[in-house]
Amino acid sequence: MPERDQSATDEVRVARYRARAEELRAVAAKLTSLEARNMVLTTAEDYERMADSIQRVIESHRPQ
Description:
The chain is mainly α. The protein contains two helices and no strands.
């Protein structure tokens, strides 16, 4: 796969992961169980970290 196509695919993944993290935070806000809320928020943070990681890879491959 050409590098440009991979970059576009990675940018879509970043957007999906960030959207999923946002959805999970919305779900967590509605939970009454502190334990469940914390678990969902941890998962949201994991999605944000994955998005950040992919974003760093994208930026490192961009021409200077």
